[in-house]
Amino acid sequence: MQGSEQSENKQKLYQERLERLERANRNEQPDRVPVMSATSTWAFYYKGYLPKDGWYSSEITEKVYRALYEDFYFDAVEIHPIALYHPEMFNILGGGHFTFNVEGLHQTKSGAINVMEENEYEDLIKDPYDYLLNTVFPRRYKLFSPEVGVDTKVEGIKKFLSFFDRFKQEMKKHNEICAQDYGLPSSIQALILAPIDFILDHLRDFQGIIRDIKRRPELVRDAGLALVDFILDGIKDLKPSYGQVILIPMHLPPFLSPKDFAKVYWPSYKKLIDELVNRGFIVKCAFERKYEHLYDFLYELPKNRIVAVLEDDDIFTFKKKFGDRIAIHGGIPTTMLYYASKQECLDYCKRLLDEVAPGGGYLFGTNMSMITPSDGKAENLKAVNDFIHKYGVYK
Amino acid sequence: MDSNKKSNNREALERIAREVMGAKTAEEIENCVKMLIRIIP
Q: What does pTM read for this prediction?
């Protein structure tokens, strides 16, 4: 086949897949069930490398994702293998709440998140930017401490930005290769946090925020509401893009009672969702762990503008309850991909096609990102993706 | 923390906004400073 003809075919494939994603995201019936990739750092192990090998080599990173997209069927890239964080970024800043294990996977550093005092909610509410810059950063990073001169800070931030730029270049290259060589669109336009999860993940940690929710729930709620604009500022120049969604991974709700969820988490989360939907975005909420105790709230989310990534909730029950209003992403547990036989995986996929796919609004994928080798056997991943691609066709 | 020390962090980000990101107006500088605060993990 001539080069130009191949290129046209990839463009056609890319457009077909975008159309497939758009319809599924809108809870409509596309031509077939989209097969989504969430093969994060798992891809390095698959190709015989460790995630840290990608830190210093763009060539290894490219080799890894090319192998992934050539060896497995996908309709879209959801979670890619390129690492945002590099240990040197944190060396430059002098601290932080992330660390890296020997293989190069970033982890939360024990005890390092809680840099906010319980009596500082009013400062956060008053001005989140000022509070972060002048209270949180000096506690978290040596570079931002009062003792460091401004010239040193400027040089340090420049170095930090060079790593950030490198990530952006890697992503640009990855997305161009995916589109041109594999006809693969990216399904995520941007990733943002729900406001209360921002407080959990970056300011108070689990013990802190749970204590605050019991002792000062109104202040936690108001801080969440104050952070909605802060979160939206990060995507203020973004316009809705065909086939893509805004991803919100959700962390705290599985640990909250319905009463505390309603009082503290829901107000800012609902405000954020409504604002995004008003701006024309479709929002993909990664309901991490279990949400069954909060299902009553989900009926109040905008109809057919939400895609739910289900992690530990029963996908078949969810389809029966919400199939007329929320699209579903997920299906195959990573534990099944690793521990079950190929036939067991295929039998489960058949059930997904029989019970979750009908009517549309279904995107097939793993229930969570594949990060380590134990998140799935390659032969099982290949088998289930091929199966869904072959049989997940709407007549 | 006294106000002089506070302004040191702000001053550093404003310099980055002007010298690296090419911000010129007060609004451009403010937007760059906010963006920098958001991307620092």
A: 0.95
